[in-house]
Amino acid sequence: SPAGDSWGIFTFLCAALCNLPALPALNCSEELGAGQSIQQTYDLTRYLEHQLRTLAGTYLNYLGPPFNEPDFNPPRLARAERVPSATVDLDLWRGLTDNARLAANYRAYSRLLCYLRVLDGQVGTAELRHRLAHFCASLQGLVLSIGGVMSSLGYPLPAGPAGPPAGPPEAPPAPNDFLKKMDDFWLLKELQTWLWRSAKDFNRLKKKVPPAVVTLRLEARGF
Amino acid sequence: DSPVQYERVGADVTMKCGSMDWDAAVTWTANGTDIDESRLNGSYLILKNVDLTQSGQYSCYEGSSWHLKYQTSLRVGTPPREPVLMCRSNNYPKGFYCSWHLPTPTYIPNTFNISVIHGTKEMVCEKDAVPKNRCHIRYLQLFSTVKYKVTLTVTNALGKNFTTLTFDEFAIVKPDPPESVVAKPVPNNPRRLEVSWQNPSSWPDPESFPLKFFLRYRPLILDQWQHVELSDGTSHTITDAYAGKEYIIQVAAKDNDIGTWSDWSVAVHATPWTEEPKHLTTEAQITETTSASTSSFMAPPTTKICDKGAMVGSGAMAVCWTAGLVVAAYSVLFI
């Protein structure tokens, strides 16, 4: 399509200009790289959301009723507030800067990953352990992908748990089995909601950063 | 104004003539017509197993004086069955609306009361003027993990009933169908149809909440639809249409990530471009040549050039204009 051709020419020129040592770093190749990785991050959230549906179904069945009932609608206990919530005021969400938007996602998934890893250690069946491990690996990939987008746009990564954690911070263990299951229920719920929210977050980011209709691999700077 | 008395279909109704004694002589009328004495038990009117046709104005007159002693308006109906409630967000992320109706009529007035609870908070669902039986809510927060619980209670003089819906914010997202669907043939392409449409106008923010689309099309003569899913853009060119066959085309929309597909849009019809037959009928040929030679000021019909294709697009208009100019120039030469 004609639009694609002009983008191709533009990116070629951009890449050429960016490699001229005389010019100051235009960062355009990084921005175009970011555009591509925003798309990849978006795709990852969709993939994870799909994976989570199967995982959550299996896990809630493992927890048993009432957790696996579709109408189950418990009140949010205070202890559930530890899990980072995707819920946000509409106007506030709209007004987030790119940096704030990305940072919120980065922080949320980092912490959710921590909690999930704890879960992984405790879970009963082999099938669940396998699924959880797979999901954690994909979620780790998402965190890294978001980090990559932030770096390529020149934003600092938020401080906090990014690597393998010792354990979730300030987490008093649940006093009984039922409350432990409630914790698990809310963890999965928040994770699901975050993945829905992230799709929207990355849609917004896609519009801001120019789309990379790039066939040239700009990451390889030895060009 | 006489009081209203509500009774269930099938009930036995006993009407007393006000404060008159049981053995008083009275006459009852229903909508002005005298009621036969066989229906009376003393001065009481007995209506057994009432049905809807017995609704009306009942009056009781003292025997000799014809004084009106008692009057009532009887309304026969039923208590409400469980109402049907539906909630939907066609304007995500602004909010959602709920609409309801009764599966069977009650034949008497009903009042509806709707309550929306989100976690611990009670939200107000603002009633719409038109249509009735509909209310809308604005979201205060987005991406909520807590479900919404909507309870609709319907009450009338004979009873009450209710229904409840519990749902997540994402589950009820369903856009309206795409608007202004247009299908045009593509000149010189007998197997193509160009389809374009617009986002539904009720969808407030297609930039941040993009829609994806589903197109279906088939020739009128076949039952089997062909489908195309489009993740962006509001147009598509069908390239495998059967030449010369009229097509029916519809489009549906969905938020890219959440919710369900809209209903299908209004159907549009279009036929791919077909080449004009090279030979004209002899009658038409004679008319053409006659008019060209005899009239200098009257332009021969330009419709032949401009008629290509079922629809007139801007390209065809340019051809018309050019043809018009050529003819005008030619005509001037004849002066």
Automatic annotation (TrEMBL), chain A:
Keyword DNA-binding attributed: no
First-listed, main subcellular location of the protein, grouped into a coarse class: secreted
Biological function: In complex with CRLF1, forms a heterodimeric neurotropic cytokine that plays a crucial role during neuronal development. Also stimulates B-cells. Binds to and activates the ILST/gp130 receptor.
One CC-aspect GO term: CNTFR-CLCF1 complex
Family as reported in the entry's similarity comment: Belongs to the IL-6 superfamily.
GO molecular function term, any single one: ciliary neurotrophic factor receptor binding
Top-level taxonomy: Eukaryota, Metazoa, Chordata, Craniata, Vertebrata
SUPFAM superfamilies: 4-helical cytokines
Pfam families named in the record: CNTF
UniProt keyword list: Cytokine, Glycoprotein, Secreted, Signal
Subunit note: Forms a heteromeric complex with cardiotrophin-like cytokine CRLF1/CLF-1; the CRLF1-CLCF1 complex is a ligand for the ciliary neurotrophic factor receptor/CNTFR. The CRLF1-CLCF1 heterodimer binds SORL1 (via N-terminal ectodomain); within this complex, the interaction is mediated predominantly by the CRLF1 moiety. The tripartite signaling complex formed by CRLF1, CLCF1 and CNTFR also binds SORL1.
Source organism: Neopipo cinnamomea
Signal sequence segment: 1-25
Name of this chain's protein: Cardiotrophin-like cytokine factor 1
Keyword check for Amino-acid biosynthesis: no
GO biological process: cell surface receptor signaling pathway via JAK-STAT; ciliary neurotrophic factor-mediated signaling pathway; negative regulation of neuron apoptotic process; positive regulation of B cell proliferation
Compartments where found: Secreted
TrEMBL record, chain B:
Domain named Ig-like: residues: 10-60
Record GO biological process: positive regulation of cell population proliferation
Subcellular location: Cell membrane
Listed transmembrane segments: 310-333
Entries under PANTHER family matching the protein: CILIARY NEUROTROPHIC FACTOR RECEPTOR SUBUNIT ALPHA, CYTOKINE RECEPTOR
GO MF annotations in UniProt: ciliary neurotrophic factor receptor activity; interleukin-11 binding; interleukin-11 receptor activity
Similarity field: Belongs to the type I cytokine receptor family. Type 3 subfamily.
Keywords assigned by UniProt, alphabetized: Cell membrane, Disulfide bond, Glycoprotein, GPI-anchor, Immunoglobulin domain, Lipoprotein, Membrane, Receptor, Repeat, Signal, Transmembrane, Transmembrane helix
InterPro entries noted in UniProt: FN3_dom, FN3_sf, Hematopoietin_rcpt_L_F3_CS, Ig-like_dom, Ig-like_dom_sf, Ig-like_fold, Ig_sub2, Type-I_Cytokine_Rcpt
Membrane-protein topology: Lipid-anchor; GPI-anchor
Highest taxon of the lineage: Eukaryota
This protein's name: Ciliary neurotrophic factor receptor subunit alpha
Segments forming domain Fibronectin type-III: 177-277
Cellular component GO terms, alphabetical: ciliary neurotrophic factor receptor complex; CNTFR-CLCF1 complex; external side of plasma membrane
